[in-house]
Amino acid sequence: MTCDVNLAHFEKFNCFHSGHLIVNEDRKIxxxxxxxxELTGFSVQVLIDSPISSLFTKASNIFIDSYxxxxxxxxxxxxxxxxxxxxxxxxxxxxxxxxxxxxKGLSYWSFxxxxxxxxxxxxxxxxxxxxxxxxxxxxxxxxxxxxxGLLNRRELAVLGNKLINHANSDHSNLAMLCIDVDxxxxxxxxxxxxxxxxxxxxxxxxxxxxxxxxxxxxxxxxEEFIILLSDITLENAHKITEDLRIKxxxxxxxxxxxxxxxGLVVSSKNQIVDYQSLHSTADNALYASKQNGRNRTTAVSxxx
Length: 304
Hints:
Blueprint: E1 19-23, E2 29-32, H1 34-40, H2 44-47, H3 58-75, E3 77-86, E4 92-101, E5 107-113, H4 115-143, H5 153-170, E6 174-181, H6 184-191, H7 193-208, E7 216-219, E8 224-230, H8 234-250, E9 252-253, E10 256-257, E11 260-266, H9 275-291, E12 297-301
Parallel strand pairs: 11-12
Antiparallel strand pairs: 1-2, 1-5, 3-4, 4-5, 6-8, 6-11, 7-8, 9-10
Helix pairs in contact: 6-7
GO molecular function, one term: diguanylate cyclase activity
InterPro entries: Diguanylate_Cyclase, GGDEF_dom, Nucleotide_cyclase, PAS, PAS-like_dom_sf, Rev_trsase/Diguanyl_cyclase
Keywords: Nucleotidyltransferase, Transferase
């Protein structure tokens, strides 16, 4: 094919640190800049009139035939396509190509080596993962109790309000248990704070047993815990609470026997509940359990 393009105009592309090619409609190279010869190790004499396919790996040529040229035929432009270039020593190099085609069947290829881009992408992905891990750590620090891994007071209020809003809109019951370890100071005094911490950790594990997905369990103070149960009747909530209190009393936690006092409040389906009043009612019921001898449950209905 005769080329009516003045290739001398393209000599300026020798200044670029990127590859530039002109390819005719027979897919033969009409022009290459100095960067192409430096990168590939092929001379200008070898490259000119050679098929463009001689520059790429077999897999890349399959991709070019099946995707790149059909796309070029349709849209006259191909952008940001990654393939592999073959050098004179048979080493392959990943490149990113951009191609445009004119109305005379000439295509203009521009490419750059993307090894550094791949490296940058890997580094960015690594940095992204590190940031996600850090964000997860910060979230856990902000929302969980560091000793037991349970929700902390603040997060219980946030999630508790969401659970209550759902119950209000769904007209379902809610139960809140306020739990306090009886005479916990005596545990610390007799066994030391390290054992006391272990007792709290083991107690937290017991509180989590057999909980439903929507149930919330939190440590809200030194030896104070709260459990929020959704969609439950007063009768069932009282049974669960008593079973839990008895189970705790029977367990030996880190060599220590403990008991707990519990205040239980349950709302009815037609009541509009708010977190603060639910908590206040359960806390008052807990106070009654402690005043009446401890190691017991005081259950009350929620009053608006």
